[in-house]
Specification:
Largest sheet: 8 strands, mixed, barrel
Radius of gyration: 18 Å
Shape: globular
Number of domains: 2
Oligomer: single chain
CATH architecture of the largest domain: Roll
Bound molecules: pyrrole-2-carboxylate
CATH class of the largest domain: Alpha Beta
CATH superfamily of the largest domain: Diaminopimelate Epimerase, Chain A, domain 1
Strand content: 35-45%
CATH topology of the largest domain: Diaminopimelate Epimerase, Chain A, domain 1
Order of helices and strands: EEHHEEHEEEEEEHEEHEEE
Distance between the termini: 23 Å
Number of strands: 15
Structural class: alpha+beta
Helix content: 10-25%
Length: 310
Amino acid sequence: MHVIDSHTGGMPTRVILDGGPDLGSGSVAERAERLAMQHEQFYKSILLEPRGQPGMVGALLVEPVNPACAAGVIYFDADAVLGMCGHGTIGLGVTLAHLGRIGVGVHRIETPAGEVVIDLKDPNTVEVTNIESRRVRQAVTIDVDGYGSVTGDVAYGGNWFFIVDPSPMSVEPANIRSLTDFTIAIREACISHGVGGENGEPVDHVILQGKSPNKGVHSRNFVLCPDNDYDRSPCGTGSSARLACLAASGQLRAGEEIVQESVIGSSYRLFYEPGQVGGVVPSLTGQAYVMAESTLIFAEGDPFRTGIIR
Ligand code: PYC
């Protein structure tokens, strides 16, 4: 299996070029569902240690339905198949450019959440125009075991987010362990209280919004992913959900650009345009760097060929 690893603001993406399972035909969303339901061991083995690394997101290339798209892609982490992934799409754009499959300019990419547009500005810089994102619930208060009442918004940006703004815990690298434990407890509370999307979709990511000490930066976030690891980047789908919240509460105008920082200090430039069905169409720009081109080997006798299950 040939893979190319990149990182976007410190968050790793592994693009899988070949060796994936037969997912049949249908939309990318239908094929993603088959990957989730029938090939769990396959996708986890690519990301779990010892072949993968904590936090890593996989990007399985698939044939797009729309021939106008440069690629179809299914993203996943070590726990779940994702609807979309912003940092992964920046990493994918840079990887496709590295392979000579796309050049500078605008390209469409098919994801389970819908078609997104990438604008490759240079070999390392990509602007992603995401699917329409929306806030679905405002100021929901939940009781979080061991922490008390926490209030946040539920929003969709290609994945489902519970966004706490401002965070009651300081968003800084020294607190990453505590922030992780806190956000896991918040996600569990959301699930046990039935707080999620309009159709009962469970919250799969949690965001804590804090202040940045850096000039010109709007805010700093901590984002918990389904695999219980944190996003080293500012999270593209999470930033999209956040833009939807800022727009819905009149805190950011269409077209106004802000800089969103991650807990480790990497950043995206963000803005939105009004959507077609009441939400926002977010754009995020970030940088990715290719780190490795590898062949993964899953030897028959290897006791950890399917990864170290946590
Ligand atoms: O950038 O959208 C994102 C993302 C989702 C999970 C990890 N990164």
